[in-house]
Amino acid sequence: MLKIDNLFASVGDEEDTKEIIKGLTLDVPAGEVHAIMGPNGAGKSTLSYVLTGRDGYDVTGGSAELNGEDILEMEPEERAASGLFLSFQYPVEIPGVPVMTFVRTALNAQHKQRGEDEISAAEFLKKAKAVAAQLKLTPEMLRRPVNVGFSGGEKKRLEIFQMMMLEPKFLILDETDSGLDIDALKVVSDGVNALRSPERGMLVITHYQRLLDHIRPDKVHVLADGRIIATGGPELAERLEKEGYDGVLAEAA
User: Domain of 245?
Assistant: First the structure.
């Protein structure tokens, strides 16, 4: 599914370049959910940006493949059409563009990129109503401009709405639990868990073990100074919650 081998990446311009990812190797098979945890500045969000093709992040070595395809050679829209989805830590506002228009346009753009027929208005509306009800999004919220006037929890639920509508092959969740109260965390987690399948992989980036109580990972990786320094099962996240990162960092030194 997602295979990253000895990846190096930097951010900045020619005069001020900083290497953030320093030889990162990671393999997430189809059907599995992997979590990445790590201290601030470890490179967690940078990894998500590099994989999805955000401007300003340069790959200087290594490779990243999704289902055997080199995603680093693709444009961002090609990566999305291939099935890669990023749920942002801080979803952006898009004034003037209604949610339903935005999501249907994105969905049909991906269909076109893959050579598929566009989704009909009736089919799209039926699916949107069902997904919105599951995520407790009201019809009024779907008529509003994307993320404009939404609370933090509403923005995250809207991200999951987009994810469930697009049904990507591989999900990257960048601190999806940030800013969520307990009720919103459960709604968002239920939406994510509804997409777990043998054909789909997920990479969950988080600071806190509480999200992993709801989205149970198959493996947990600790990222520090741009590389994976420890890997284990869900118990590793529980250890980090109790002890912090110092012990794992010392063992890796």
Answer: 2-93+169-252
